Amino acid sequence: MNNTWLIDSPLDMHLHLRQGHMLDVVAPWSAKCFAGAVIMPNLVPPVTSVEMVVKYREEILRSGNDDRFTPYMTLFFRDYSEAELIAARKHIIGIKLYPDGVTTNSESGITDWRAYDHVLSIMEELSIPLLVHGETHGFVMDREREFMDTYQDMAQRHPRLKIIMEHITTREAVALLDRHVNLFATVTLHHLLLTLDDMAGGKLDPHLFCKPILKYPHDREALQNAVLSGHSKIMFGSDSAPHPIHQKECCGCAAGVFSAPTALPVLADFFDRRGKPELLQKFVSDHARKIYGINPPAKRVSLTRQSWRVPDKIGEVVPYMAGKEIPWTARPE
Ligand code: NCD
Ligand code: ZN
Ligand code: ZN
């Protein structure tokens, strides 16, 4: 039994770091053990210009305080001109599209993507990937499934546009991946491990309430099978999304699981228990590097079979697995 695993440049391909004090509290947890992360633009107001991207990137570097951590920045999708996108291209890894109102801070998202097809054409031309929160406004358990037609339309209309289906949660999304060469996906830790029962089957756990909502056992099984097959179009994206405790333990609970501090150790445990240690490197780094064509800073992180207790709170946020023992510890070399 190998008690230490070394991972080269782990990447978190979907991360919320917020702003201000919250950014200061959460950024170091990602910067310490990851070599890079794709930073979501759903701030208040959303990140919709190169100036905002550049400023936000500087704030992240300052708060993260680790020179071996690269924030891969994104713009919030809107009606961008070609000139704007040409100017933005070297500052961003992609543009994130939110349907209006489907998740945290997505009020200025779009109602009908077809009205913005010309933006997708420019992105396709400039090789700027499109990242999508793929949910309709339908019944909460069906929203992702109902969005599959949209993914399919986008993928067919823009065959050279790289489309990342963010935080996929259903077996239908897993199946769609193999039908279009230009579709890729991120998978979170919580959707890989949990179902709706974990959040709402017994006493309600607001800290597991997130969008897309946790799904059925058969969906989790499809995600696990895909990840454990080493599917090269799937990469890890934590979707770590911190909210202060008073916005979680209340009526009108905000959606989001703060998993950045526990992600790597819990993933190590997941692959260890299934006898697939070699897949961790691929899932948390290699696939993302290939899909996005990025070369993150060299940063080696060790995972050691040594248990630790997750803090009850980090600042004003309750992390995923708060108060629990985790059998693996992550440390930068
Ligand atoms: C995210 C957040 O809080 O910003 N929440 C979530 O439940 N996942 C937004 C998102 O990724 O949809
Ligand atoms: Zn989302
Ligand atoms: Zn997210």
Describe the structure in your own words.
- The protein is of the alpha/beta class and 333 residues long.
- Helix content is 36%, strand content 16%.
- It has an eight-stranded parallel β-sheet.
- α1 links the parallel β2 (11-15) and β3 (36-39).
- α1 packs across α2.
- The mean pLDDT is 98.
- N-carbamoyl-L-aspartate is lined by residues 16, 42, 103-104, 133, 210-211, 239, 241, 255-256.
Short description:
With 333 residues, the chain is α/β, with parallel strands linked by helices.
Write the layout of secondary structure elements.
Elements: E1 4-8, E2 11-15, H1 20-33, E3 36-39, H2 50-64, E4 70-76, H3 82-88, E5 94-97, H4 117-126, E6 130-132, H5 143-146, H6 148-157, E7 163-165, H7 171-177, E8 183-187, H8 189-193, H9 196-200, H10 217-228, E9 234-236, H11 245-248, H12 263-273, H13 278-292, E10 300-304, E11 308-309, E12 325-326, E13 329-332
The chain binds N-carbamoyl-L-aspartate and zinc ion (ZN) (2 copies).
Report mean pLDDT, rounded to a whole number: 98
Detail the poorly predicted runs.
none
Assembly state: single chain
Sheet with most strands? 8 strands, parallel
Terminal-residue CA separation: 21 Å
Order of helices and strands: EEHEHEHEHEHHEHEHHHEHHHEEEE
**Heteromolecules bound:** N-carbamoyl-L-aspartate, zinc ion
- The fraction of residues in strands falls at 15-25%
What are the main properties of this structure?
333 residues; globular; binds zinc ion; alpha/beta; three-stranded antiparallel β-sheet; eight-stranded parallel β-sheet; binds N-carbamoyl-L-aspartate; 13 helices
